[in-house]
Amino acid sequence: MAAPDMLARMHGLTGPEAASGDGDLPDLIPAMFINRELSWLEFNRRVLAEAAEAANPLLERAKFAAIFSSNLDEFFMIRVAGVKRKIGLGVASPGLDGRTPTQVLAEIHATVQSLLDEQADLWRTRIQPDLAAAGIQILPFRDLDRAGQSALRDRFERDIFPILTPQGIDRGRRFPHVSNDSLNLLVLLRLPVGFRYARVKIPATLPRLVEAPSDDSGVRRFVWLEEVVAAHLDQLFQGAVVVTSFPFHVTRDSDITLDDHDDAESDHDEDLMTAMRESIALRAFGRPVRVMIDGSMPPDIRDWLEEHLHADAEDCYVIDGPLGLDALFELMRLDRPELKDPALAPSDVPGFSPSRFAGGEDIFSAIRDRDILVHLPYQSFDAVADFVQAAAADPDVVAIKQTLYRIGRNSPLVPSLIQARDDDTQVAVLVELKARFDEENNITWAEELERHGVHVAYGVMGLKTHCKVTMVVRREADGLRRYVHLGTGNYNAGTARVYEDFGLFSAREDLGRDVTNLFNVLTGYAVDQRFESLWVAPHHLRTHLMDAIAREIESHRRHGGGYLLFKVNALVDREIISALYGASRAGVRVDLIVRGACCLRPGVAGWSENIRVISVVGRFLEHSRVYAFGNNGDTRLYLGSADLMERNLDHRIEVVFPVADPDIRRHLLDVVIPRYFADTVNSRQLLPDGTWRPIEPAPGEPPSDVQSSLLAMYPA
To answer: Would residue 559 show up in a list of annotated catalytic residues for this protein?
Structure first.
């Protein structure tokens, strides 16, 4: 591993100009950027490491293995699909890191194959045996006793056989279409006319883990669904001899892109809804970007399959074990609390406690008193649901406006919004139909809201609406007053129990005015609104961030002690990275908490030796975005929905909002954030060569877990 100064010398990054420390950067060279796709794969490696961590409860380890697989599915459907599209268009120019798309794809393939090998080995040698030792066996069908095989044979005939559709492949029957994200069996048959192939799709409507009867000891026994099907293929192909079968899994390009047209007719919400439905349907037919095959498949059969799937050799990944381990999510349904993390019991939000409202006060008086911060999942999402419900039931509320990005299947908010409309309150909701992989769910909720007379808009053409904003307008003794909730995470009650996020309630007039203007942008044609306190993308957020970094550099030159703290999901934007390098060269200390992809290379002499990057992967998904600027001791603190990516800064509507309350600022800056940098359980530090090193406790010190300490700090 190269030391920072050695790495700098290797790439010619040192010398009088590079070490001037004046904050002005020469043209950045590729060596100073980590490839985005490869950086994201390193994030997923950190997820897989949690599956290997013996200190984690056993079923949580299985869950992390499932998350690793689910993450890879989306990575291929979107990111790898994008790389392959560039190659298909003949793009050969290198990216910021100096790699061409062809080189990137080759490195992706090598890295992913290595990670899949690691996951398969982890499953085979550690997780599966540990599950068996805990009384949860996942067995090959052939290893079941006679009673178990007989029970699964009955189960196959009753519940599985009627769903299956065998598809022969010969000159008269072309190779069938294999849909996206599907698990299949390629079956080799011997017929009187010779050998033939057939395909059987494994039904996604059935659980992947089929339970067999428990043995005499009470051990729970499961068999993979594809093995149950494979063991009974003779019933599907009667009269043929089933020689063998091989599972394979196909992932297709699923990135939905809608073209914006100048024709005014195309701006209609109905047209957008129709276009989204059509685009979702096309996901099943995108070009293959990954084919996972069982390691037992011979090379000649593998080549035949790739040819008929129109897949390339670099799309093929060989797995020594079960395909698609995201199915391990199913194990979380088992009633084995001792094998899971303790059940989460979020605490009430101070100021929103039921006892306060039992005394006759209302939720709005609590917000009038002072701004209120909610820290999910440690504190309850009920605070948000209660806010919307109180607004829906309050006769003095005249308007409710809300943005909805990922709503969830069982939203407590939608019924409240419908109730408010039924009570003649003006309700306007912005539903983002283009929220990736939530499109169908959002369409369903949008139609439900419209049926009840809610004003539903679908955003600004060409931009995703990613901000998390609610406004309630209430008639009070001194006139109309606006109450707002601004958040870093989605209005989704399900993810609010596993995603770490912040939300702020406020009755401040400056925020109320800005949010009013924001909704005029979202639902009307006020495309160039000016905002007093909010930083709003795409028109102003990038400028605000760059100006704030420049001010911190200038403050450091005048007073010393310059400091920047950013907590984000991803840092990939070239301009922001360049500005952070400039801050480091000027002597400003930069602390970055980046959960996922980070293209900045820290610790390089003359460039980034003042920058520290850590990542926290633990029980909860670190999702909040925090931006702090030292400001000569009077820290300016912002929270928001935007990551440091070009798409967030230039192609989405995002909101970053200031934290003005001094107590909330102190709580975040002096209590919450320091716990991340003290973590020695979930935290890893990014090294100059792009690898991540676990942060371990000093000799004699106990381990520190930021998420556990926050759970203890917010008592149930």
So the answer is: no
